[in-house]
Design brief:
Elements (H helix, E strand, L loop, with lengths): L10 H6 L4 H10 L11 H12 L30 H4 L1 H10 L4 E3 L10 E6 L7 E9 L2 E5 L6 E3 H9 L5 E8 L5
Antiparallel strand pairs: 1-6, 2-3, 2-6, 3-4, 4-5
Helix pairs in contact: 2-3
């Protein structure tokens, strides 16, 4: 799915910008018990998986911009703890789609470990939840998350949510890539 480096671009620099999807998915699967840091911690959990498991590089700057992505260490949280893109689903979706840029995955058969799922619910104008794909067994997508059963399948999440007043109305799958 990924593109080869442009002619004249050194392979080493291309590899350095690669985000490890297998590592992202494995970290998410093995670390669902990690401490919550926010009341709604789903995107913080996904960002940790991308950083610790996938090796995605932080980007500093004004914390409200879509092109930055960072979390300050616990001992240095001034002026903010994390960028908006680190800790809010819609902001991370825009960051991965337009500032890394990632691939939008449109076929269930193409979804793979390490892809990021974004959920939009009835009544919401933006995506409010994020999760990490941990496996795809013949179209049965498994995911890890904070903000629901830690380990579940996409089908089960949709079925559970269908009975609520605000069912899932849209799901976007993005495969993160390196820096542009």
């Amino acid at each position: 799915m990924g593109e080869a480096p442009a002619e004249g671009v050194r392979q080493a620099s291309y590899a350095a910008s690669y985000i490890n999807g297998l590592g992202t998915g494995s970290w998410a699967y093995n670390n669902t018990g990690v401490k919550w840091e926010y009341k709604y911690d789903c995107t913080n959990f996904v960002s940790k998986a991308l950083y610790y498991g996938g090796g995605m590089k932080m980007r500093s700057g004004w914390y409200k911009r879509d092109d930055v992505w960072f979390k300050n260490p616990w001992w240095n949280s001034w002026p903010v703890k994390a960028s908006y893109t680190w800790s809010a689903a819609e902001n991370l979706r825009r960051h991965l789609a337009w500032n890394r840029p990632g691939y939008f995955i449109t076929r269930v058969s193409d979804v793979r470990k390490g892809d990021i799922l974004f959920f939009r619910y009835k009544g919401d104008s933006v995506y409010e939840h994020a999760a990490v794909v941990t496996a795809n067994y013949s179209g049965r997508i498994h995911m890890a998350q904070h903000g629901g059963p830690a380990h579940t399948t996409l089908d089960d999440a949709i079925a559970r949510n269908k009975q609520t007043p605000e069912p899932i109305i849209s799901i976007v799958v993005i495969r993160p890539t390196g820096a542009r």
